[in-house]
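Figure 6 in text form: structure in, sequence out.
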């Protein structure tokens, strides 16, 4: 019973037992409606942010003397070929905002700190992320090098390639991270929290995430769609087996930065973006299966060697602290401090 005159202390939103990444939100305060609220909030935050991003770009256009700045920006960001600096800047920023959209939505709806979207340990494990990059970069260097030799670029190097290259260096890694936080973070944890069995909680979000990720790129071509789904499934498996988003972020960032570097220096900028008119081939899917299969095996091998934690482990003292805080005679300031620490 709580101490007289003091309200009972709410339990932590974090799980009281070990949980895999996809079930991080299945804590004592979980309810069926919380994932719905989180998904709606994330969509709202993303749409509002992406809309508001047009305004500073239009203001910049007005400063440099562009006539009809708003029309100029909308035309720049709606093109799918020969994307210029303004359009490329908007593409990057509109995907970067998915990071706060995903983390804030989970925080508000589930009362779990944003750091637990990054990993089961709370926050990005920087050493592990660096180790993933060391594994992924050589594989992608070989993959992109062979691709450049086999398939020659059809479009020339863009005129403003130096500005675009600077954006690739500083913004594209964050753009890749934003997609991972949304598709492998938000969707995996919110949808996975509905299911009690860990395998079901993994497979259902994985299928939905892969389909949503592939569809979001806009191509209905079966080979491109399948190739994108291969990456999405690989990232989902690594998120589950390593307990965090670091491996998926590493693969995604290395791929995007590597592709953009190659096409900006050698040509092929127009073909670097997937659109409704993009087409692929069976060879593209086969190569995707081989490359992602190799990376998957290597990263899992390194995760085993490094002893990477794949499940959330509650603090041994958290349950006892919660009971002590609600016991007769407990100090309310200590109880509140305990809640602040674990929520």
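Output sequence:
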């Amino acid at each position: 019973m709580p101490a007289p005159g003091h309200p009972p202390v709410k339990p932590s939103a974090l799980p009281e037992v070990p949980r895999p990444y996809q079930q991080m939100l299945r804590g004592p305060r979980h309810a069926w409606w919380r994932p719905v609220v989180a998904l709606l909030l994330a969509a709202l935050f993303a749409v509002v942010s992406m809309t508001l991003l047009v305004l500073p770009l239009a203001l910049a256009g007005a400063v440099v003397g562009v006539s009809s700045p708003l029309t100029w920006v909308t035309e720049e960001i709606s093109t799918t070929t020969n994307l210029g600096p303004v359009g490329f800047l908007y593409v990057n920023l509109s995907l970067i905002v998915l990071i706060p959209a995903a983390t804030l939505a989970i925080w508000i709806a589930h009362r779990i700190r944003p750091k637990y979207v990054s990993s089961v340990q709370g926050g990005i494990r920087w050493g592990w992320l660096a180790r993933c990059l060391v594994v992924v970069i050589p594989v992608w260097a070989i993959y992109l090098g062979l691709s450049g030799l086999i398939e020659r670029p059809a479009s020339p190097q863009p005129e403003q390639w130096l500005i675009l290259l600077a954006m690739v260096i500083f913004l594209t890694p964050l753009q890749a991270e934003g997609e991972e936080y949304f598709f492998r973070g938000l969707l995996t944890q919110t949808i996975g929290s509905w299911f009690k069995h860990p395998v079901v909680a993994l497979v259902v979000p994985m299928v939905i995430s892969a389909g949503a990720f592939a569809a979001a790129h806009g191509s209905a071509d079966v080979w491109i769609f399948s190739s994108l789904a291969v990456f999405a499934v690989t990232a989902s498996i690594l998120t589950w087996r390593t307990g965090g988003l670091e491996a998926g972020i590493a693969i995604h960032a290395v791929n995007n930065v590597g592709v953009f570097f190659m096409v900006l220096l050698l040509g092929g900028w127009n073909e670097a973006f997937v659109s409704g008119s993009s087409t692929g081939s069976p060879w593209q899917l086969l190569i995707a299966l081989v490359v992602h299969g190799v990376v998957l095996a290597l990263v899992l091998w390194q995760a085993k060697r490094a002893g990477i934690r794949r499940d959330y482990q509650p603090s041994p003292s958290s349950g006892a602290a919660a009971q002590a805080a609600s016991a007769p005679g407990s100090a309310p300031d200590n109880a509140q401090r305990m809640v602040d620490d674990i929520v």
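Caption detail: Residues 46 and 243 are 25 Å apart (CA to CA).
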